[in-house]
Amino acid sequence: MMKNDNVLKNTESFSIELLLLTYPLLLLSGDIAISPHYLILILSVLAGIGIYFLFNTFSYTALIGLLISLFLSMPLFIIGIPVTPTILVWTYIFWRIHTNFNSERPARWNFMAVNTIVFTVFYLITTIYLLQPEKTEFNQTHVILFIATTILYIVLRYIIVMITGKWIPNFQFRAVHKMFGSVLGIGVVTFVTVYFFIESFRSAIINVFIMLFGNVFKKTASLLPEVELPNQAIPEDEPLEEVLIETPTSSDQINLGLYITIIAIALAIIFMIMILKKRKITIDTIKMPSYSLQPFGLNKRKIIKNQDINLLSTTNVVRVAYQEFEKDAELAKSSRLAGETVKEWFQRMGWEQDNQLIMTYNKVRYGSLTIPEEESRQFVATLNKIKINNFNKNV
Questions:
Q1: Residue 234 CA from chain centroid, whole number
Q2: Is the N-terminal amide bond of 133 cis, ω within 30° of 0?
Q3: Euclidean distance between CA atoms 162 and 171, whole angstroms
Q4: Residues 6 or more apart whose Cβ sits within 8 Å of residue 322
Q5: pLDDT tens digits, one per residue of 194-216
Q6: For the segment 90-131, what is each residue's pLDDT rounded down to a tens digit?
Q7: What is the per-residue burial (b if ≥16 Cβ within 10 Å, else e) of 3-39?
Q8: What is the pLDDT of residue 259?
Q9: How far is it, in rounded angstroms, from Cα 195 to Cα 286?
Q10: Does residue 158 contact residue 2 with C-beta atoms inside 8 Å?
Q11: Cα–Cα distance between 353 and 168 in angstroms, integer?
């Protein structure tokens, strides 16, 4: 079992935040032999594995954070990234690792939302400021990076859930496998569709669009007054094709809208499946009589018969009681250290060791499982007992 519970979540958060560097690094790729945007994907995975084991053995310090940031940014400088962008990357990496591992309650980013925003911003930048054919090549790579980072995030989430599930009694691994498979399947299908069939799909959309609205555009154009363009003399000594002005085609004009539409549809499907699966897992997670859920409110007959309790009421009682306990412990100068598990905290302070209390905490903290009313009352009573026996003495 890992040294503390938070290392796993902090490592996950840091690794996926490194993935966001792929978009700005794509703009810096230029003539570099090794693509920095793909290199950072590999470094993100390797950094996650290494940091997970490192901070299970050693506690985080700012010096370690600086060294890790330097270690991750140096390969970019070696392959040819200029000094200034390398320093900016190093600053970003240190900022994120220090925020995740130095805070007891780090504010984690919603990766799906942030990733979509960053992708859209850099896509628009390349669309507006780059010329053909660079624009087309960069935009296609942007789409591939967006789908690749999304799939990596899904895989990482699956690994984290599987590791965490080993700490929770009666965790339904089969349901997690099904949800992961369905979501990953959608991601892979979307990736293959965009990478291999985007041109055919785009041409089909354009043809359908022209077939449906072509006559409307022709009639509209016929109603508009004709504008005479000034005659430009063509030099006699130059071929005609060399002075022709390249005008954007209709496919170029709807390129951005088409890509964004595909991504929006894919994300909507993924979010819908995740919400539906999460709802189903929450209801079916525990089959034991003492762990059941009333999804549509309390039913008095079932409560009397099965001694069931609504999920929200019991889990909220446990959460609120623990939060108040942490506040009281801080006032009593017995606060929990950064990166310290509840079990390690209790052992360090010499408080009462109650395995049931730790088990109840883990259920609510990691599993969002249903908790019987008696178990929640016992949790609150144990915390109150610790307060009475220890906190009054320390004040």
A1: 56
A2: yes
A3: 9
A4: 361, 379, 383
A5: 667 766 766 777 777 677 776 76
A6: 999 999 998 888 876 667 788 888 888 888 888 888 877 766
A7: bbbbbbebbbbbbbbbbbbbbbbbbbbeeeeeebbbb
A8: 55
A9: 41
A10: no
A11: 19
